[in-house]
Amino acid sequence: MEGNNQVSHVTAGPSSSSSNEARLAILELANMISVPMSLNAVVRLNVADAIWQGGCNTPLSASDILARVLPNGGGDAENLQRILRMLTSYGVFEEHLSNLDDGSDDRKFSLTPIGQTLVTDQNGLSYGPYVLQHHQDVLMGAWPMVHEAVVDSTVEPFVKANGEPAYEYYGKKPEMNGLMQKAMSGVSVPFMKAILDGYDGFEGVERLVDVGGSAGDCLRMILQKHPNVREGINFDLPEVVAKAPTIAGVSHVGGDMFKSIPRGDAIFFKWILSTWTDSECKVILENCYKALPEGGKLIACEPVLPKKSDESHRTRALLENDIFVMTIYRAKGKNRSEDELRQLGLSAGFSHFKPFYIDYFYTVIEFQK
């Protein structure tokens, strides 16, 4: 009887349904690395272009796709199908089924709107290089050390893995700089299309400086849309602008934004502040302030964190990118809230702050002198 009494005092655990859901969820999270690595694989294999074929987007089997990406033969269609099925569950591909009732496995795949972001456009751009840039070997080596950003936030995991900061490392590796430029171009062009359709803040500007402008794609698009901008200054590190293409109306200028920034009626930059600490951001903003005339403005495009965390794609993208910044660029670099950005602007001397929520990821912010 005593043994029976002991058994009766065991505390009941969570309900079977909620326990099963929780265990499924943690298994999904633990295996989540399969998602970016499979995405990396389909970019390397050029699967999106193979399916797209000039906009046809005809559903293809894994064997059909393999024949297009490896025209000389070879490859394992079954393993490719496994990758495609998994990415289908994340909305990258659409799966088309037939004849499954007779035991055959006739699966074909087409591109969803998400998958179409990986298609190379007429200018040779897509989000594919952005995927590849994130998953280079030297970056991947930093990820097992994310906890170190909590233990010691004076040094980011990238430095602990590779011995020097990411930007310095990139500067010594031309192939990494080239991939970075292509990645930023692939992201910037669709972003700028959205901005130029919904934001008129470039009107009245004659001399525009793009800080961290990489290959100059943003300036090129701004000048095409706004002929009032007579002169564009693409300002970036010397090793970056050295490879920038010739663009009508744009001068490529190498330098260091922590020392000085070329003068202009307005200054534009995208995803600059997130990769630096508060004190570093203040220096950048102060140099922007000095380079502007009275009434001039800084047009900054930055990821702005929501006040409340939720499960939306936007919130997840912003918070995931925040951890990327913490791991690769600065342990105390971060995506900031609207209030944090406003306070940074005020600390640098800017008297006016106005956000424009046009793009889903980046927010356009005007700091006016």
UniProtKB/TrEMBL annotation:
Coiled coil: none annotated. Residues 27-121 form the O-methyltransferase dimerisation domain. Pfam families: Dimerisation, Methyltransf_2. One of its GO terms (molecular function) is protein dimerization activity. Signal peptide: none annotated. Residues 143-351 form the O-methyltransferase C-terminal domain. Keywords: Methyltransferase, S-adenosyl-L-methionine, Transferase. GO terms for biological process: methylation. PANTHER family: O-METHYLTRANSFERASE (PTHR11746). This is Caffeic acid 3-O-methyltransferase.
